Amino acid sequence: MTQEKRPVTLITGASSGIGAALAREFAANGHELVLIARREQALAALADAIAAKGASRPTVLRADVARAEAARDIAGALEQRGLEPDVVVNNAGFGLVGTADTLDRAEQLAMIDVNVRALTDLSLAFVDSLKRRKGGILNVASTAAFMPGPGMAVYYASKAYVLSFSEALHRELKPKGVRVTVLCPGPVPTEFQARAGLAADAFPLTRFAPRGLLLELIARQQKGRR
């Protein structure tokens, strides 16, 4: 007799920033989590903090989603643990500041790998379990998705893809019981700025308010709204 797999919420880029904030809110709403990022120590610290508040301790998976085999390896790790996603949160991503002709081309292609290819792969890799469980996908884009971005051309274009893809996937999967939501935050104080090469005072940063926005996003996932 096949053992029933446990449903989990899978979150990429969960070691800090918006990913960590999402992890805390999903856990507070009773979701069992699988946290994914490259920094295993940071993930373990977050998992301990979540468990200390009385929630189930998240599963920690160290993985680099930029690798072409990442989705396959993540699926295999979940299979070994008897887990399958009912929610997939694609938060991993990064940006680079500079004109496209002067930035390192390999780094820009690596950005596309994370922001576009990996997000697409992980959005589709678990569709069967999401259909069975009437689950959802939450893709993290940006207000950059709504306009071109000279000086961050590839990053802005990658987020435009996330928005367009998520809107289309919402229409395709909604009749099959799968909810697709896209989050488009403005500038927030996370590690993104340092990774992108932005000065701390490059533009005003808004204070990220997880208790409002994040709870609303989770409610939308649970109620089946986009």
What structural class do helix, strand and pairing data support? Answer: alpha/beta
User: What is the strand tally?
Assistant: 6
- Helices and strands, in order, run as EHEHEHEHHEHEHH
Mean pLDDT: 87
Poorly predicted runs of 5 or more residues:
204-211
Percent strand equals 15-25%
The DSSP helix count reads 8
- The shape is globular
Order of strands across the widest beta sheet? Answer: 3-2-1-4-5-6
What does this structure look like?
With 226 residues, the chain is of the alpha/beta class. The chain contains eight helices and six strands. A six-stranded parallel β-sheet has the order 3-2-1-4-5-6, sandwiched between helices. Strand 2, helix 2 (40-52) and strand 3 form a beta-alpha-beta unit. Helix 1 (17-28) crosses helix 8 (210-223), helix 3 (70-80) runs parallel beside helix 4 and helix 4 (105-125) runs parallel beside helix 6 (153-173). The longest helix has 21 residues, at 105-125. Residues 204-211 have low confidence and may be disordered.
